[in-house]
Amino acid sequence: MMGAFALGAAQMADRRVIRVLVKSALVSLALLALVFWGGFAAFDAGIEWLAGTQSAWIAGLGQLVAAIAAVLCAWLAWRIVAMAVLNFYADEIVSLVEERHYPAFKPRDIPLSEEIAMALKGAARALAFNALALPIALALAVTGVGTAIVFITVNAFLLGRELQDMVWARHPKGAVPAAPGRKSRGIAPLAASTRFLLGLAVVGLLAIPVANLLAPFLGAAAATHLVHRAAARRAGNSRDGHDAL
């Protein structure tokens, strides 16, 4: 796991990687600004409707509360926004990693319609599972740490699967190179524990200022290395078993 992230970090000096990082970061920040603006407008209108505008003091307090609530919404939405944007640039990121480290693999080009569908599906899945976890998280709020543990666990599992699927989507079944005369093997699934640790690492990076802008790329790069290593182990074990027979 650490080696996969280290390889991803080492490739960040590549100018092509920097271009992808800048594009994805700017788009993510622009969308986050829209989330904040929409949240502030909605909360401000709701508070004004509930409390009325009898005085400037109440109106000012309402705007302050609306701003705080909007910031909280934007913070909670950052992971969903960042990963949705990453889906649009995942093809470029995975291509750059594979071009440098796994040139034998021949990925397919993903059409824009499929990239949009993947981004929407990932965002919808994240919203749905976080909404389902919300009652449990609120019930555990009295513990002080229970709420954070619930959301971290849920999003770690979601992120691990999403990052793995980003690599899988680029490889049709049987895309793993095999020895001459041997049947090609498909991309191997990551172990559940590996997916969780991958997602957990990215969730941690997303919570750190500045690092959260790099987290999507590092996660996608690390997932590419982990998936390819799993595929190599699977192909190696298959060949060893064939030779033993």
From TrEMBL:
Protein name: EI24 domain-containing protein
Residue intervals passing through the bilayer: 57-78, 127-158, 196-224
Main location class: membrane
Compartment list: Membrane
Membrane topology label: Multi-pass membrane protein
Pfam families reported for this sequence: EI24
Species per Swiss-Prot/TrEMBL record: Croceicoccus marinus
InterPro entries reported for this sequence: CysZ/EI24 (IPR059112)
Domain of life the protein comes from: Bacteria
Key words, A-Z: Membrane, Transmembrane, Transmembrane helix
